[in-house]
UniProtKB/TrEMBL annotation, chain A:
Matches recorded under Gene3D superfamilies: 3.30.70.20
Keyword list, A-Z: Electron transport, Iron, Iron-sulfur, Metal-binding, Transport
Protein name per UniProt: Unannotated protein
InterPro entries from the UniProt entry: 3Fe4S_ferredoxin, Fe-S_cluster_ET
Entry GO MF terms: electron transfer activity; iron ion binding; iron-sulfur cluster binding
TrEMBL record, chain B:
Gene3D superfamilies to which the protein is assigned, alphabetical: 3.30.390.30, FAD/NAD(P)-binding domain
Organism this protein belongs to: freshwater metagenome
InterPro entries: FAD-oxidoreductase/Apoptosis, FAD/NAD-bd_sf, FAD/NAD-binding_dom, FAD/NAD-linked_Rdtase_dimer_sf, Reductase_C
Protein name: Unannotated protein
Keywords carried by this UniProt record: FAD, Flavoprotein, Oxidoreductase
Amino acid sequence: MITIDVDMDKCQHYGQCVFEAPDIFKLNDNDKLEFVATADDSRRSDVESAVDVCPMQAISIVE
Amino acid sequence: MSKSVVIVGASMGGLRAAEALRNNGFDGQIAVIGEEVHAPYNRPPLSKEVLAKEVTHEAVAFKLRAQVEDVIWNLGDPATSVDLEKQVVTTASGKTFEYDGLVIASGLRPRVLDLPNGKVSGRHTVRTLDDAIGLRAALVPGAQVVVAGAGFIGCEVAATARGLGCAVTNVAIDSYPMIRPLGELLAAELQRRHESKGVNFRLQRGIKDLTGTDSLSGVILDDGDFLEATVLVEAISSHCNVEWLANTNLDISNGVLTDSALRAVTTEGQSVDGVYVVGDLARFANPLFDDEARRIEHWNIPTETGKRVGAALSAYLAEADHFAELAAQTFTPLPTFWSDQYEMKIQGFGMPGLADRYELVDGELSDELVMAYFRNDVLIGVVGIGMTAEVMKYRKQLLGT
Ligand SMILES: Cc1cc2nc3c(=O)[nH]c(=O)nc-3n(C[C@H](O)[C@H](O)[C@H](O)COP(=O)(O)OP(=O)(O)OC[C@H]3O[C@@H](n4cnc5c(N)ncnc54)[C@H](O)[C@@H]3O)c2cc1C
Ligand code: SF4
């Protein structure tokens, strides 16, 4: 399993992460980010892509 | 013997290329040569929230992943030349780095005004962490700040400086701030919003000279007007960092021309095997729009180009069968940009600057909104202020999905 952390002080709810891993990140009806905090190892590459595209560099994979 | 890659430029493009080489199985040596002393960091916050708080490397540094742990970082020592025949890069300190694969990732630097009394202190640019640290110290409450240039970076600095209690005047040759990417309607509205926050604009004006003996005391405009100023921020445009490529036959007329695999192209139009370009410097055609090669100075491009180069270059170095197929694939990254000014979250996709028509398609001009941009009646870009979910619908359309 991998653990995902989003620094909510940094996150500006741009939603770029949603395109990379829609099963993990989504914007709710108020355009606010919601995410699943743990995922299977097989999702690592898509979560890394989400880390890459986040303009605020708010997402991290907790090692 | 195992092969080696040299990456020139230790910023986002260079880092993403290094990661992608490893992710695609390249296990030879990777050396990254950087002019700045800092490990790769994220630039956008330097004109936005980090400038408003405290600027430190820690606040903006990219996390270095395990894949790039064994990369050799040669920092604070720029490349000064390359011999494409002998495949060797030389640095300012006289070190030489041989390579089988070369990644050009040296980016841009700000252009500064050439002024008769240009030697006064108080002049700033915003490209590097050190620039931002210097500027942050100058943005004290009550400082009289003139920002030259009304593009995104100039407008972000203006907004941040207002937030810090500075008096701000924006001087630019354009008729409205950010007009080139956004068009007149939205640009005029954004000017109104900046003015309501207390920014003064002197548009369609240039700066003729500065006053002050040691430190800056004012700015003289080309219409003879005088503005008192203790701080001048120059955000007018950029130079490409290609001087180290001057003795090569690469087409460096504007950035570095590439083919669709992002291989550098010579002035004769020949792709050079093993030499690739990423980030702000890469000038490539994007079939999403047309066949004209352009540089795109947006933050998502270092990542998109870095990934493509990592895949292509690792296949080339491994002499993999799929290299030819990979190199021939089209490259169609969707330009993505955003800007934070005051409470506004501006987000854009595509190339709105190429549009011949635009239309307010959602929201209100004075509030949150979505603007769609068309060329020959085809959607070519979208820009939103807020309204993320609505903007994303147009993004989907731009991607043709
Ligand atoms: C203040 C600021 C705010 C921005 N905000 C946004 C934004 O909100 N949204 C957006 O989409 N984009 C934004 N951008 C643009 C984005 O940051 C760039 O597109 C991105 O940094 C380009 O990355 P790069 O790696 O290609 O080049 P760069 O980041 O320019 O890196 C090039 C590196 O190479 C080094 N170098 C130069 N010459 C040599 C040499 N001879 N040898 C070795 N090293 C060399 C340079 O010192 C530099 O470290 C902003 C840029 C700035 C400066
Ligand atoms: S991309 Fe980053 S800033 Fe945007 S919603 Fe995701 S975590 Fe937040």
